[in-house]
Amino acid sequence: MTSWKSCFWTVFLLCLLGKISGLDNGLALTPPMGWLAWERFRCNTDCKNDPDNCISKGLKFGIYEDYGNFTCAGYPGVVGHLAGDAATFAAWDVDYVKLDGCYALPADMDHGYPAFGRELNLTGRQMVYSCSWPVYQIYAGIQPNFTSIIEHCNLWRNFDDIQDSWASVESIIDYYGNHQDVIVPNAGPGHWNDPDMLIIGNFGLSYEQSKTQFAIWAILAAPLLMSVDLRTIRPEYKAILQNRKIIEVDQDPLGIQGRRIYKHRGIEIWSRPILPIQGQHYSYAVAFLNRRTDGTPSDVAVTLRELGLNNPAGYRLEDLYEDVDYGVLSPQTKIKVKVNPSGVVILRADAQPSFAYNAIPSRTTYSPLNDIFRLTKK
């Protein structure tokens, strides 16, 4: 790993909730949300000579350390003084601890990360515990023990550090889609996969690409940790980060991570089960992602049933970016969305109780012999 250098992380934590079944520190029942300095500001604290790019905001803070002799930047790590460092963090009223893995043997992490987590808990102060444990082992060819990781960490990194580019965001989306059978079962209340920071409002993403990152991170039940200059962020990017309906998807109490359910010719569909549940039927958040870059929007047409939405009473459908309510639709109803290049459409489909559905006639005839959905270009 080349980043997570040694520096204080200023973090405004919004979610420190309840009791969990994994790491028993009572935190992160929903994915953590807040603000991190690293991607945008790195370790710049020279506010005298570089006031526009330094960190001095007076927010609550998290802290970075490393389970090694040194941090990635060469500063002292926690090895040899786990208890002392944990006690110091508690004395400083730290709320969030990120433990990196530079200058450490990946095989030693199965012992080291739980040991430091226990020291944090012994302080009596609640601190969210963010681990880099699995990513270092994956890079070393070691199969991570996710049973232990879930027990000892609130969140963990699986893949590369995010950079300020669309290519970086795409690589993370691809990794989580291509490895979802291994990754998805590990997520839940109190223990989350962390695809890394939100870079919305910086320099590397277009408006459409920023909407895509926020929507897919919500489908992934990811921590929503911004790394952006909050003093200068443009209103349209600020509005993405403040989209309450998408945040509600991310923070859904079920804590089920979503999956990529379709990928073909640059079009992807991602789906996440959410509340409310009606009988045996979940509600869903569904994201249509256009990975094409040919300059023209793509139309995607699909029935709700083809998306796995089979509740006989139907679903109330809402576009979470356009703030459009389409009413209650039957599983046989075919919907069509227009998705901009490198953009996204994210819908919420709330399962309805049986009395709410009045036999809405189907607009199309569903046949399992048809393609999963058809694509048209206009």
From TrEMBL:
Name of the molecule in the record: Alpha-N-acetylgalactosaminidase
GO BP: glycoside catabolic process; oligosaccharide metabolic process
Which organism was this protein described from?
Papilio machaon (Old World swallowtail butterfly)
The record's section on InterPro entries has:
Aldolase_TIM, GH, Glyco_hydro_27, Glyco_hydro_b, Melibiase/NAGA_C
Domain of life of the native organism: Eukaryota
Q: GO CC terms for this protein?
A: cytoplasm
- Is the Membrane keyword given for this protein? no
User: Which controlled-vocabulary keywords does the entry list?
Assistant: Disulfide bond, Glycoprotein, Glycosidase, Hydrolase, Signal
